[in-house]
């Protein structure tokens, strides 16, 4: 597993110091750099130093800057580190929320889930972009002919992509591909049409 570069985004030296010490005590965690940055300097910093995990004090960063961070680091996990009870609009854009009063095991859980997601994404990367498009078509309930028309390729090409997908993922059903596509974030749950009897 690659070392985990972590960025702590806060103006509070006490919160930053506590998080830094907690992360260093996690012996099972393969950390790379653990850096602390002021919220107003984070945009410039991440251009040269991308991180996979950002622990952010939500009070110190506005929504526009948070959206910019999300665009700059689409694969990063953003965790709101809360020092007090905040309304949901402060934390709804984060992947996880953690209180400074939580046990260190809560942070370890988040990192464990994040590593699981990264492993799933590595599986997704083994599919070509065209194969991912075919998976999305299958999940949306399109026929081979409809997928071919949407992708502007022949039906035989779609069938070849389907065989390659099955060989790479070892998934042999549309239901299995649907679960895979949701977990791998190829589709959102609301994009899938359900055809249940009424």
CATH superfamily of the largest domain: Response regulator
Which sequence of strands runs across the widest sheet?
2-1-3-4-5
CATH architecture of the largest domain: 3-Layer(aba) Sandwich
Top CATH class of the largest domain? Alpha Beta
- CA-to-CA gap between the ends? 47 Å
State the low-pLDDT regions, or none.
none
Shape: elongated
Mean pLDDT: 83
How big is the Rg? 20 Å
Could you say how many structural domains there are in total?
2
Helix content: 40-55%
State the CATH topology of the largest domain. Answer: Rossmann fold
For the largest beta-sheet, the strand count, sense and barrel status come to: 5 strands, parallel
Instruction: Indicate the proportion of strand residues.
Output: 5-15%
Organism: Muribaculum intestinale
Keywords: DNA-binding, Transcription, Transcription regulation
Protein name: LuxR family transcriptional regulator
InterPro entries: Sig_transdc_resp-reg_C-effctor, Tscrpt_reg_LuxR_C, WH-like_DNA-bd_sf
């Amino acid at each position: 597993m690659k070392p985990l570069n972590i960025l702590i985004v806060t103006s509070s030296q006490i919160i930053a110091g506590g998080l830094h010490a907690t992360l260093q005590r996690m012996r099972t965690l393969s950390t790379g750099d653990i850096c602390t940055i002021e919220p107003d300097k984070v945009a410039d910093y991440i251009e040269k130093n991308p991180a996979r995990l950002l622990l952010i004090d939500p009070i110190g960063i506005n929504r526009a800057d948070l959206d910019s961070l999300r665009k700059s680091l689409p694969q990063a996990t953003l965790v709101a580190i809360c020092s007090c009870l905040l309304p949901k609009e402060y934390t709804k854009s984060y992947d996880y929320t953690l209180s400074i009063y939580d046990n260190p095991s809560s942070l370890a859980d988040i990192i464990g889930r994040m590593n699981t997601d990264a492993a799933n994404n590595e599986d997704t990367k083994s599919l070509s972009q065209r194969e991912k498009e075919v998976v999305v078509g299958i999940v949306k309930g399109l026929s081979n002919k409809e997928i071919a028309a949407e992708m502007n390729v022949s039906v035989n090409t779609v069938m070849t992509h389907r065989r390659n997908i099955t060989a790479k993922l070892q998934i042999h059903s549309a239901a299995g591909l649907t679960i895979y596509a949701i977990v791998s974030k190829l589709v959102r749950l609301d994009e899938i049409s359900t055809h249940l009897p009424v």
